[in-house]
Amino acid sequence: MAIIAPVDNGKIVEDNTQSSKKTDKNSSDKEMFLKLLVAEMQYQDPLEPTSNTDYVKELASFSQIEAVQSVQDQMTTLKANSLVGKYVILNTSDSSGNSEYVSGKVDYVMTDEEGEIFLSVNEKLYSMDDLDSVCDEAYYNAVIGAQDLHNAIAKLPNVYSLTLKDEEKLKLCRKVYDAMDDYQKRYVSTDDVKTLTTLEERMEALKKAQESLDSDESQEDQDKTEGVEE
After folding, report:
1. pLDDT tens digits, one per residue of 92-130
2. How far apart (Å, rounded) are the C-alpha atoms in residues 162 and 153?
3. pTM, two decimal places
4. What is the pLDDT of residue 78?
5. What are the residues facing 17 on neighbouring strands?
6. Cβ(83)–Cβ(134) below 8 Å
7. Among 53, 96, 177, 207, which is 20 to 30 Å from 1 by CA?
8. How far apart are CA 217 and CA 225, in angstroms?
């Protein structure tokens, strides 16, 4: 794919080449219509010929359709340009053809040689047709933050496999959650909060057990020392 139009402040500026291609396409469409019109005139029923008025109506209808298509193309381009700098969610497919969601900020917009519009998100190009949602920045940050926290909690061991070595990871998850404001916390799953709390309670139990064990060992060492001195 090649960029066929320069980008100024994230917006496509049409050059003569792009305009020429659009003109060529429109001319081709008109030529095709005229060929069909001539064929219709040649093979019409001589006993019931089509009136000139009908031909004029057909030509007018074609012009109207052409105008509508042109307006739609312009609206699509304007819509794409308005997305620059905004956060979007795209519903696309991975290399295996499976549906996946991609989110990020639109850096710029480009058009390929066939006139298809692409959005640059996370340094990759996605078709305008993949656009699923346009997000408010606060909403986007809240959703992404909640997802990151969910992923971090999911990587922690379950309550039966938790060890003292996991304490720092557990503290980090709690720190991330406590740093969220009330709006952001609304997007955090109640299951994630419950899992985090359960793991913290388990960690406290493990620490107390370790402290008790250390105390007992210390007492044993002290008793042995006193026995040797006697």
Report:
1. 987 788 888 888 999 999 888 888 889 999 999 999 889
2. 12
3. 0.54
4. 81
5. none
6. yes
7. 96
8. 12
pLDDT < 50 regions, the chain: 1-5, 10-12, 15-23
3-state secondary structure labels for all residues of the chain: CCCCCCEECCEECCCHHHHHHHHHHHHHHHHHHHHHHHHHHHCCCCCCCCCHHHHHHHHHHHHHHHHHHHHHHHHHHHHHHHCCCCEEEEEEECCCCCEEEEEEEEEEEEECCCCCEEEEECCEEEEHHHEEEEECHHHHHHHHHHHHHHHHHHCCCCCCCCCHHHHHHHHHHHHHHHHCCHHHHCCCCHHHHHHHHHHHHHHHHHHHHHHHHHHHHHHHHHHHHHHHHC
Residues in Cβ contact with 105 at an 8 Å cutoff, skipping those fewer than 6 apart: 85, 86, 87, 88, 121
DSSP state of 47: T
Cβ atoms 173, 152 nearer than 8 A = yes
pLDDT of residue 17: 45
Residues 6+ apart with CB under 8 A from 4: 15, 17, 18, 21, 111, 112, 113
Structure tokens at 222: 């002290």
For residue 113, the model assigns a pLDDT of 83
